[in-house]
Design a protein that fits this description.
Protein name: Type II toxin-antitoxin system HipA family toxin
CATH topology of the largest domain: Phosphatidylinositol 3-kinase Catalytic Subunit, Chain A, Domain 5
Helix content: 25-40%
Strand content: 15-25%
GO molecular function, one term: protein serine/threonine kinase activity
Number of domains: 3
Keywords: Kinase, Transferase
InterPro entries: HipA-like_C, HipA_N1, HipA_Ser/Thr_kinase
Radius of gyration: 21 Å
Shape: globular
Family: Belongs to the HipA Ser/Thr kinase family.
Number of strands: 19
Largest sheet: 6 strands, mixed
CATH architecture of the largest domain: Orthogonal Bundle
Structural class: alpha+beta
CATH class of the largest domain: Mainly Alpha
Strand order of the largest sheet: 10-12-9-7-8-11
C-alpha cells in the first residue's frame, strides 16, 4: 500500500479474509489516515471484505460503477481486495495499491472472462450514484482511453430522482454565493461527454460535473472522508456519528475550518440537504500533513423529492438533539458550539450570516437557472416556513 510513491503498509489476503499492517512509523511521515495516526500498530482485519478504511475507497455494492467494473472483471460480485488491486493506480486521494504477487495464482481473485465492456474503467469513486472520472479536452469531457487519469467527476441523471444534476448545480451555486467553498462546477449535455459506455445518458440530457479536489496539475492530493476517519463501514455511514462529533474532530484537527463547517450545516438545513452522511464530509491534506476540510460537494435538496424517506425532513444525523430540519433553531447551534468547546457567539454569527445570505440570493438562483418547477415550489415554501429562516432570515 502506497501514499503517492511512499510505501506505508501491507494489505494481505487469505481465503476471503484480509488484514492491513501500517508500517510508516518515521517521525516525518505524511498522514495516510487519522486512524493510523491515533493507533498505528493495531492490525486492521476484515472477513469477506477489506478493513473499513479501504472499503470506503471503493464504489458501494449496488452502484452502477461497481457493476461496470464487475463486468470488466467477469464477476458479478468481486471481492473488495480484487477491486483495490484492479483499480489501485487511480483510487481517491493519493492512495496507490501495488500487488507484490500475481492475483491470478489465487483462484477466487483471478479475472474471469470479461463481459462486453465498450470502455475500460480503471478508476474508483466512492458512493452509490452513477459517476465517472473524466478529463476536460476541447469543448467537452472525455473518459480517458486508459480508463484512468480523470480530474473531473461527472454525475449522470438518476432515473429515480428527476433533475438531480441541475439540483446539485443550483445548490452548490447558491452555496458559493453565500461564501461556501465550492470547486469548479458545470452542467453538460450528454453530447458533450465522450467515451462513456453506451446507453447511460441521452445526448440532450444534462449531467453534473465537478472538478476533483484530490487532483491538481502538480499531482494527487491526499484525502479521506469521515467514514474513513471514523473507520466506519460504508453501509454504516448513517450511524455512529453526530454533527457535533464531526465539529469536535474539526476543532482538534483544523479549527480554522469550523466556520466553514457551520456555514455548510446552516445551508444543509435551509436547502433540505438531508443526506449529509459521513461520506459527504472529507478531510484533505494539501501539504501531506495538515488536515483541512475539503470543498463542499453533494449538496442536493433531496427534501424536494416525494420519497417517503425524505418526507420527514430528517437529517442524516442529529444536530445536538434535533434531527428534523424544519425544527432546527439557533438553540441547536448554540449547543453544538458548547459541545465542540468553541465560541458560541462566533457560531451563531456564522449561522445568521449564512441564513440571511441564502434567503437574499435565492431569487438570483431560481431566476438564473432553468430549475424544475417542483424544486422552485419546494424551496419557496421551505423559505417561508423553516424555523431557522424565521429566526435569522
Amino acid at each position: 500500500m502506497f501514499l503517492a510513491d511512499r510505501r506505508v503498509g501491507t494489505l494481505g489476503y487469505s481465503d476471503g479474509n484480509t488484514w492491513f499492517d501500517y508500517e510508516d512509523l518515521a517521525l516525518d511521515h505524511p498522514v495516510f489516515g487519522q486512524a493510523f495516526e491515533g493507533d498505528p500498530t493495531r492490525r486492521r482485519t476484515a472477513s469477506g471484505s477489506v478493513p473499513e478504511w479501504f472499503a470506503n475507497l471503493l464504489p458501494e455494492p449496488g452502484s452502477g460503477l461497481r457493476s461496470l467494473i464487475g463486468q470488466e472483471l467477469g464477476r458479478t460480485n468481486p471481492h473488495d481486495f480484487h477491486l483495490l488491486s484492479f483499480l489501485g493506480q487511480d483510487l481517491p486521494g493519493a492512495v496507490r495499491v501495488v500487488p507484490d504477487s500475481d492475483l491470478g495464482d489465487i483462484p477466487e481473485l483471478a479475472d474471469k472472462t470479461p463481459g462486453d465492456v465498450s470502455q475500460p474503467v480503471r478508476f474508483s469513486l466512492a458512493g452509490v450514484q452513477a459517476k465517472f472520472s473524466m478529463r476536460w479536452e476541447g469543448k467537452g469531457l472525455v473518459l480517458p482511453m486508459s480508463g484512468q487519469g480523470g480530474d473531473w467527476i461527472v454525475k449522470l441523471p438518476d432515473r429515480r430522482f428527476p433533475a438531480v444534476p441541475i439540483n446539485e448545480y443550483a445548490m452548490l451555486t447558491w452555496g458559493k454565493l453565500c461564501g461556501i467553498d465550492v470547486p469548479d462546477i458545470a452542467l453538460l449535455s450528454g453530447a458533450e461527454l465522450h467515451g462513456l459506455p453506451d446507453g447511460l445518458i441521452g445526448s440532450d440530457e444534462l449531467a453534473f460535473a465537478v472538478r476533483r479536489f484530490d487532483r491538481s496539475a502538480a499531482g494527487r492530493i491526499h484525502q479521506e472522508d469521515f467514514a474513513q476517519v471514523r473507520e466506519t463501514a460504508p453501509d454504516l455511514k448513517y450511524e455512529r456519528a453526530s454533527y457535533s462529533g464531526i465539529a469536535r474532530i474539526l476543532t482538534q484537527l483544523c479549527p480554522e475550518d469550523l466556520d466553514e463547517y457551520v456555514r455548510r450545516l446552516a445551508a444543509m438545513v435551509v436547502m433540505g440537504n438531508l443526506d449529509a452522511h459521513l461520506k459527504n464530509w472529507t478531510l484533505r491534506y494539501p501539504d501531506g500533513r495538515q488536515a483541512r476540510l475539503s470543498p463542499a460537494y453533494d449538496l442536493v435538496s433531496v427534501a424536494a423529492y416525494p420519497e417517503p424517506e425524505f418526507r420527514k425532513d430528517e437529517l442524516a444525523f442529529r444536530l445536538n438533539g434535533g434531527r428534523i430540519a424544519r425544527n432546527i433553531t439557533s438553540k441547536s447551534f448554540r449547543e453544538l458550539a458548547e459541545h465542540a468547546e468553541v465560541d458560541t457567539g462566533s457560531v451563531l454569527e456564522t449561522v445568521a450570516g449564512t441564513v440571511t445570505a441564502l434567503v437574499g440570493h435565492w431569487p438570483d438562483v431560481k431566476d438564473s437557472h432553468a430549475l424544475p418547477e417542483f424544486l422552485v415550489e419546494h424551496m419557496d415554501e421551505r423559505l417561508r416556513n423553516l424555523a431557522l429562516v424565521k429566526e435569522f432570515g
